[in-house]
Design brief:
Elements (H helix, E strand, L loop, with lengths): L1 E3 L2 E3 L6 E6 L6 H16 L1 E6 L7 H6 L4 E3 L7 H16 L3 E5 L1 H13 L5 E5 L9 H13 L3 E4 L2 H9 L7 E3 L24 E6 L8 H13 L4 E6 L7 H9 L6 E4 L6 H5 L3 E4 L9 H8 L4 E4 L4 H4 L6 E2 L4 H12 L3 H18 L2 H13 L2
Parallel strand pairs: 3-4, 3-6, 4-5, 6-7, 7-8, 8-9, 10-11, 10-13, 11-12, 13-14, 14-15
Antiparallel strand pairs: 1-2
Helix pairs in contact: 3-4, 7-12
């Protein structure tokens, strides 16, 4: 046994780290957890508790090769059941570190940790829903973060600033970029990035929630079709196929033949590779969009809204439009369509090199590990 930074752990198995997340849908936090687990399990003993019913990410969690437990109850006393389950796992596993993802996991795990002498609990801050949270959601997060949380990992300054506004103390934040999708590198493209005489295939990947820019892209597509150009939209994400409001908008805009709605998949690499252009059309703030990193890694051309300046600060994008402006988006797409294939290829390569020279996964992981070890 060795002692480092106030922690005692086995030099063979490393620290014992319990991860807790309250979601099994395919989203940013869930994907980042997967990348973190893959690296952490190499040097440490890792276990995962999922406070949700089985979903699209369940098999992905289990394929990592670590112990995974799902725990969820729809009964009115479900939160109590989940808290008792957390308590049982902490008692049996005896973790050195507890790392939570998403607010439900933050709150329940920290309350349990307070009564089970678990002092080293870390949260994450990157959720795009926080600006719209009502008072009774903000209050427990504010109180618990001030009293019982060892640290909060934020994947951008925007994420930190938004959470500070609801009461998170500034001193507990740790800035850490997202892990990049290295597994996507060197994937061969299945078609040319753009063929001038063909239909322009434009994609957007996001959950079926307001504020992600689905309607903005739909209106932009109608504008483009009115100019006599041929465009095909492809939407993919959790709940997209069942989103009645989106289907109604598509029908109202009379572009049903130009839009496809695809169910979420564990791996959407092939979907990206069949695109001519990827669009991040968010109107709400974004922290560090995984989908943009995935598209750039695969050398898929991208256009982004200017929301929170994320596109400029992290990705160094030059093709941006005012969030919510379908006219500007339509103009940007048409400008893209008029470029030569060489121009498109040069810009995609530049974005890829910029992103992967600026961020290295091993350096990102060192930030996590150093923070866990700091007394």
């Amino acid at each position: 046994m060795i002692k480092q930074a106030g922690l005692i752990f086995n030099e063979i198995t490393g620290m014992k780290i319990l991860f807790v997340i309250s979601s099994t849908v395919s989203g940013g936090a869930e994907k980042q957890l997967v990348e973190l687990l893959k690296i952490t399990r190499i040097d440490h003993e890792v276990s995962l508790l999922v406070l949700a019913t089985r979903g699209s990410m369940s098999a992905v969690y289990e394929d990592i090769g670590i112990p995974v437990q799902h725990m969820s109850s729809n009964k009115f006393y479900g939160l109590v059941v989940e808290m008792l389950g957390i308590c049982k796992i902490i008692k049996e596993f005896k973790p050195d570190i507890v790392q939570t993802f998403l607010y439900k996991a933050d709150i329940l795990t920290t309350i349990v940790g307070k009564f089970s002498s678990q002092k080293r609990i870390f949260w994450t801050a990157g959720n795009t829903a926080i600006p719209s949270f009502h008072f009774w959601k903000k209050l427990p997060l504010s109180l618990l973060s001030r009293k019982f949380t060892k640290g909060v990992f934020a994947n951008s300054m925007q994420a930190q600033e938004f959470h500070e506004k609801i009461g998170y103390p500034k001193k507990i934040f740790v800035q850490v970029p997202n892990f990049l999708p290295r597994s996507l590198e060197n994937k061969p493209k299945v078609r040319d990035p753009w063929i001038q005489s063909s239909e322009l295939r434009v994609g957007l990947a996001a959950r079926a929630v307001e504020g992600k820019g689905h309607l903005t892209l739909l209106r932009a597509a109608r504008e483009i079709k009115m100019q006599g150009r041929n465009i095909k939209l492809s939407f993919i994400g959790e709940g997209i196929q069942d989103w009645t409001e989106l289907k109604d908008q598509i029908s109202n805009l009379e572009i049903s033949n130009s839009v496809e709605l695809l169910a979420v998949q564990d791996d959407i690499t092939d979907w990206y590779l069949h695109l001519d252009l990827f669009v991040l059309a968010s109107e709400m703030w974004e922290s560090f969009p995984n989908v943009l990193a995935e598209a750039v890694t695969l050398n898929v051309p991208v256009i982004s809204s200017d929301v929170a300046n994320i596109a400029l600060e992290i990705f160094d994008l030059r093709d941006t439009f005012q969030a919510g402006s379908y006219e500007q988006l339509a103009g940007k797409i048409c400008e893209f369509a008029d470029r030569s294939q060489l121009e498109v290829s040069i810009e995609s390569t530049r974005l890829n090199r910029h992103l992967h020279s600026k961020y290295q996964n091993i350096e990102t992981y060192k930030i996590w590990e150093k923070s866990w070890l700091t007394p």
